[in-house]
Amino acid sequence: MQKHYNKSSLTKFKLTTLAAGLLLASGTLSAQEQDARAIAERLVDEHFQNSTLSRDEQIEELMWFAKAAEPFRGMDIQTVAEGLTTHVYESEVLAEAFSELTGINVTHNIIGEGDVVDTMQNQMQSGNSIYDGFVNDTDSIGTHIRYGTTINLSEAMENEWADYTLPTLDLDDFIGLQYGTGPDGSIYQLPTQQFANLYWFRHDWFTDPDLMAQFKEIYGYELGVPTNWTAYEDIAEFFTEHVGEIDGTKIYGHMDYGRRDPSLGWRFHDSWLSMAGMGSKGVPFGNPVDDWGIRVNEDSQPVGASVSRGGATNSPASVFAMQKAVDWLRDYAPEEAQGMTFGEAGPVPAQGHIAQQIFWYTAFTADMTDPSVAVTDDEGNPLWRMAPSPTGPYWEEGMKVGYQDVGAWTFFDSTPEDRRTAAWLFAQFTVAKTTSLEKLMHGLTPIRESDIFSEQMTEMAPKLGGLVEFYRSPNESNWTPTGTNVPDYPRMAPLWWQNLAPVMSGEVTPQEGLDKLAADLDSTMNRLARANVFDSYAPVLNEEQDPQVWLDQEGAPKAKLDNEMPQGTTIPYDEMMEAWMAAGTRQE
Fold this sequence. Notes:
This protein is of the alpha+beta class. Helices cover 43% and strands 11% of the residues. Helix 2 (31-46) runs antiparallel to helix 4 (85-102). The radius of gyration is 24 Å and the shape is globular. Residues 1-17 and 19-26 have low confidence and may be disordered. One of its GO terms (molecular function) is transmembrane transporter activity.
């Protein structure tokens, strides 16, 4: 698929028409409109100097917000998001700017990710309005399309929000809109931030002639970016056991975390099994078997996670993936990593003693670019790079490659319509072209293609270790969130860490842990179906049968391979990046 950046003529027409109309009226502005224009000009000059719009276009876009918000002036609204740098910027800068411009007093609350999910679930179930707008991961899209309480944004923009939808919103410019879209093509969630899990490595070590020669002598092939899990394991072993120490510091060939904690679930349901090749072909979501191993029928109804029902959660590919997670954490990571959570493990590679990490979130990019950390040079340039994660032996061309986290604005019918509409205006303000590039430069979580291809991001690219190149490549679309097959994310996500923590600690085998996980997923889906809680796409589980019946069929679930560790393969980083950039050439 050729991905390119090309503003639509319709969007340009809308923007030009909007600007012309407001400019025409500017000669007879009321005192209130004059005040709004003065505020808009000051906000652009003080906060939003970086934008793909011209200054005049920014001011006119902000004037639209001031005009659209008039019915809600003086209203107090509460929105909520998790504590990422991007959302802190929305809370501390964008909420204040929006409130000043529109007279709508918005408090953008920052709470823990788990608390966001719990509060959202509470609002959906109780019908009580707790927040007027949620920034909620699109991992919950399967929940939103089924319960009938989430606002269908496509319908709302054509009906009750027709006069309150920004003419220059430009939905075609969003890079992750498909992840908040249901099987019916309707948008339920509007992206406001996005980051991927990629491979991270010490570029300076990987290009050291002595280390390259030593690796080649031991393993018989070149040290480079691993393209399969065998090469990743070889490199992990090499740095941990054969190199062992650099500049007097003990080094490790792998980093991960294993503490029994809800964040351990993210480690695995964020596509770990599908990176090994467990699921079906298809992007953004494997069809019919997704990255959780849940199979759906032709009507998008889940029919099972267990291999005995046609799912793949406890399939041979999944067992292989979990065994590698256990082995690598035990053999090649710092000992303390086994007792760490996601938050504790995240900053560790920046400390300078980790050679590579197969599963690294780009949300940590900003922390990696601080000139004070051990993985930048004296001028603040990164000694590290990010690249596509290697794929496992069950992976096939046409499958998703990894995970992408997409935080998106989500609204519920339990919120009074006037407050919900006011919150919709604020949501659009946080993603408008006037504000989005500046927000990207603060949080490094892009949502607009126009921002990714901006001159500002071109200038920043050398400091970001491959982030800009990743998002400019059409291959970026192969990294996707949890899909629509998962019918109740808040209820089902905890099953992962509860069942796989004993695997990581060695209390049970990978097969035992995955068998229990698959059974629990099936049991939960069956129970929810019997409770008749779904408005649509309710689970209809297949009857259990001999797993071999399914393993003998084409596609997922896949039978165990005779050789799960083929010859390791690598590629030089510069060669890989050239291919990525050639594929992602911008077209006007």
